[in-house]
Amino acid sequence: MTNEEQLESIKNFSYQKMSHDATGHNFDHIQRVIKTVKNILKDEPADPLVTLAAAYLHDVADDKLVSNPQTLENEIKDFLNQLDFSNEQITEILYITHNLSFSKSLSANPPKLSLAGQIVQDADRLDAIGAIGITRAIYYGGANSETIYDPEIRPREKMNKSEYRNLSNETIINHFYEKLLKLTAMMNTETAKKIAKNRHQYMIDFLAEFKAEWDAEK
Ligand code: ADP
Ligand code: NI
User: Fold this and answer.
1) What region holds the HD/PDEase domain (predicted)?
2) For residue 117, which of 67, 45, 54 has the smallest C-alpha distance?
3) The domain at 3-214 falls in which architecture?
4) Separation of 82 CA from ligand 1 center, angstroms?
5) 72-126 residue pLDDT tens
């Protein structure tokens, strides 16, 4: 089996798993991540097969999206086995998909990703910022019945204890301060840092305009 054939099968598998999602992880997200990964790979010496396979599979077993992530990880493992991936490749791909997330990066002992993993993480994060990122945050917030904005709600690190207890109050605009505006400084590769710059500024401009319009309604 050629690498192209392996990737074509993985793409179909990912499509079957992701195409029904309605929280901003539909297959269009995967396709943008793949395009960005290919772009970054032009400047980075990572193994394209492992990087692209991990990119296609990165959200399939996400514990935010499925109730049985372990079952899906086992399914991915069997599937990659059938496609003649080595145990070493399978271990690397699953390590990447398991450890990519923003919350893991913030943990006391953040996982150390291979270059392939850093590239997938950058591409995933680039899709969470800029105009697409704004759209996805609003889409996700709507799907999860979040309030649009509450000027009283501030980023967690600036909250006092009693505010902190009320965290069901996440708003769409607050999500920018809690996560989206932090991603640019967390990019791994030079290519991603360059792409992130404009997208970051676009979010800053959006938030300034949003708040100006919000206040004008008073
Ligand atoms: P991914 O795993 O693709 O990086 P997430 O699962 O964290 O992304 O979230 C999917 C999309 O929804 C992202 O664009 C993210 O910024 C957005 N999102 C996640 N949590 C929230 C939230 N609480 N409010 C608004 N948007 C959110
Ligand atoms: Ni993703």
Assistant:
1) 22-138
2) 54
3) Orthogonal Bundle (1.10)
4) 32
5) 999 999 999 999 999 999 999 999 999 999 999 999 999 999 999 999 999 999 9
* Concatenated DSSP letters of 66-96: -S-HHHHHHHHHHHHHHTT--HHHHHHHHHH
ipTM value? 0.94
Amino acid at 27: F
Minimum-distance ligand 1 atom for the alpha carbon of 58: 2
Q: Which residues of the chain have pLDDT under 70?
A: 23-24, 154-169, 217-218
Q: Which two tokens stand for residue 26?
A: 């539909």
pLDDT the model gives residue 18: 87
Of the listed ligands, the closest to the CA of 32 is: 2
Domain ranges for the chain, please list them.
Answer: 3-214
- The best mutation among 136, 173, 174, 186 to test binding of ligand 1, ranked by most ligand atoms within 8 Å of the C-beta, falls on 136
Nearest atom (ligand 1) to Cα of 132? 14
